[in-house]
Hints:
The protein is mostly helical. Helices cover 76% and strands 0% of the residues. α2 crosses α14 and α7 packs across α9 (164-192). It is globular, with a radius of gyration of 24 Å. The mean pLDDT is 87.
Amino acid sequence: MSADPAGRRLRPLLPYLLIAPALLALLLVLGYPLVDMVTLAFQDMTRKELFSGTAPPWAGLGQFRTILGDGFFWTVAARTALFTVVCVSLTMVLGLLTALLMRRVSPWVRAVLAGILVAVWAMPVMVAAAIFRWLFDADYGVVNWLLSTLPGLDLARHNWFTDPLQGFAVITAVVVWGALPFAAISLHAALAQIPPELEEAALIDGARPSQVFRYVTFPAIKPLFVMVTTLMSIWDFGVFNQIWLMRGGQPEREYYLLGVYSFIESFAVNRYSAGAAIALVTVVLLLIGAVLYLRQMLRLGEVE
């Protein structure tokens, strides 16, 4: 007996029906705030309209002309891009090394490492920021005390955040600390799917361990590596909590990233529309960077 024609026609729609509830939930949760932010970016919202409830006047592209013509905006944008590159690079390198280590140790050591990574991953950002603030505290910081024990170094009462370069080094450590478990566990899962016979055959043929990793191991995990790198780029480009918490809710202008800059403009300076415009430009820049990066990686994959 032939299959039901109606069921056969509906079968291609099944995947879309399965993801429809998740898409509907995303639209309900994120749709209105996104539309409201885009609308606000083209208006001129002040405290007068906010408290009176009246509709703010339309500004058109005025907010975007203002922020794009401001040199400080581009300084913050360049700082955000550099911060993202550093954080993502450190996270992926350390995550890959940790995943390779987990692959080579005994099962019980691997289980302990996995438990530690999961515990770090589950740690709230507020707790991690408090721990790092204590570690690098100018008066009671453990890092200052340890480094002062080295010959020729005296870091007593050294404030790491006086110099923005040193301060961002501490903030980078907080970001990488929180992101490392996801990268390491994901890459370890990809490494576990590689048949051992492939690497053993390459070693038997005379390949060095570095060559085995370059031509056998890494190409096998490259799709997941690209995906995790893209996710890390999105997360690190929008970093806000770590900077806000590490600076006690009062970050200096030297510590502004685009997320912090948008928040300050909206809720500290009360330029709500300017803050929305900065957030919208941030989203557009992030989308452009992600698309270009993925296209480049896909082209490299096709060449290989």
